[in-house]
Specification:
Layout lengths: L7 E6 L4 E5 L6 E6 L5 E6 L5 E4 L12 E4 L11 E9 L8 E6 L15
Antiparallel strand pairs: 1-2, 3-4, 3-6, 4-5, 5-8, 6-7, 7-8
Length: about 120
């Protein structure tokens, strides 16, 4: 975690270094909620500079600019850490869920210091 928000999860810890699975990695999934509405979803990495939010119903009122936080579910991140901001929404006429793109809150290409939570 940085002062801007969640960057990922440690997947291997050594004596002097650690490997982190970044939130943008396609193997990453974080239980989340929208700050204003408290609706839940799952933030998944795309392997690029942004993430997607899955399982948000087409009927949900989500807006570009909405902040997305960790939900505290899953036992990885405490509730309320900033993950990112909604940057794009596609409501499909068919299907149950919206396609939501999320811009991570932290600049993952320019990290200097991070805070590690121990479970």
């Amino acid at each position: 975690v940085t002062n801007s928000g969640v960057i990922g999860q440690i997947i291997h810890a050594g004596p002097t270094t650690s490997k982190v699975l970044l939130t943008i990695d396609s193997r990453s999934a974080v239980d989340s909620l929208f700050q204003g509405s408290r609706l839940s979803g799952v933030v998944v990495g795309t392997g690029e500079k942004q993430c997607k939010i899955k399982f948000v119903p087409n009927t949900a009122e989500i807006k570009v600019g909405d902040r997305v936080l960790s939900s505290g579910l899953g036992g990885v991140f405490p509730k309320g850490l900033v993950i990112g901001t909604v940057s794009q929404i596609v409501r499909k006429k068919q299907g149950l869920f919206q396609e939501i793109t999320l811009t991570p809150s932290s600049d993952l290409s320019n990290l200097e210091e991070v805070l590690v939570f121990l479970s």
